[in-house]
Every structure is written in structure tokens, then in C-alpha cells.
Amino acid sequence: MVFNSVFLTVLQVVGTLLISAFVAYGFAAYEFRFKNFFFVIVLLIMSVPFEMLMLPLYVQINDMGLSDSYAAVLLPFLANAMTIFFFRQYLVGMPKEIIEAGRIDGATEYGIFFKLIMPIMKPSFAAMAILNGMNSWNNFLWPLLVLRSSDKYTLPIGLNTLVTPYGNNYDLLIVGSFFSVLPILVLFLCFQKYFIEGMTAGAVKG
Q1: Range of 163's domain?
Q2: Cα–Cα distance measured from residue 156 to residue 145, given in angstroms and rounded to the nearest whole number
Q3: 205 inside domain
Q4: Which of 5, 19, 165, 202 is least surrounded by Cβ atoms within 10 Å, i.e. has the fewest?
């Protein structure tokens, strides 16, 4: 269960950061038709609670034949509206001359993003890695809905199985809860400096 949680959290964080950064970069760096309309949709998605999306997502996952798989846990949250919004706000103040300089030097659009833009986004990546990692690690309801095989259970589901109407295994529950906190604590301590920079970016100008 610990391995499942670590595996899913790493994939979730990497996939969410990459996809959300692509979308946010598009909103911040390019002009296209209905740009503001699509960004408003992103903002609206942020205001919709997951409980309202849970049933349609569950039906869609079943229709796609992905139930009881790791993909069912990962796919619905790869394009995270909050992460897109945060990255977009971080990149709005980015000098457009950086992109133009990259194009003049012959870099492709992907080359500009990976070689010029991503290094600038390190603090924001660290901040969102912590937040998305924490959400994925603690995610309980959605994996409980889509996972049926016990060998694919994540740690929160495993800890929940220790609480039953016939008796509670508090010894393992307390120890498991303690170890479930450690990865997030280590993640925060490793990226604390970048986390603070990312959360305060743009607050002070000059």
C-alpha cells in the first residue's frame, strides 16, 4: 500500500505539473481566439466541488473500461484547474522578450518552454509539487471508488480497513498514520525555500 501511494503520488505530481504548466504557458504567452473564455472556464472549474463531479467521472471511467486500474486514479486530475491558475498568474509577468530571443536563436516552441521557461518556474513548480503531492498522498474517496483489488489499495484506504465494526487495530493505525505523514514532511523540508518563493512571487514588485 505504501508503494502504491508513492507510485501514484509521483506520477500524479509529475503529470499534473507538466500538463498544467503547458496549459498555463499557453494562456500566459500566446494570443488566440476565445482565450479569455477558456480561462474563465478554468476559474469556474475551480469553484465546482469534487462531490458534484464524482458521479459523472465514475460513470465515464467505467465506460472507458479503466475501473480498478492506476489510470482511473490518475487521469481525472492530471489537468488541475488550481495548478493551471497558479502557473498562469506566475507567468503573466514573464518578459515576452525571453520567448522572442529564443525564437531568434532558432529554438522550437518546445525548446523555449523546456530550456527557458521551466527554469524560471522552479519556485512555482516546488510550491505546486508540495500541494499536489499532499492532495494525491491523502486522496481517499476517489481511489476507494475506482479501486477494487486489495493489492492496488493506497495507504489511506489501507488505514481505513483497520477500523471495523468488529474491532479496531489502533496500534497499527497510529503507527501507519505516523508514517503516512513522513513523506509530506520530507517533501516540504526539501522544497521549503522554493515553496515560500513560489507562494510569494509577484507579491512585491520593484
Answers
A1: 2-200
A2: 13
A3: no
A4: 165
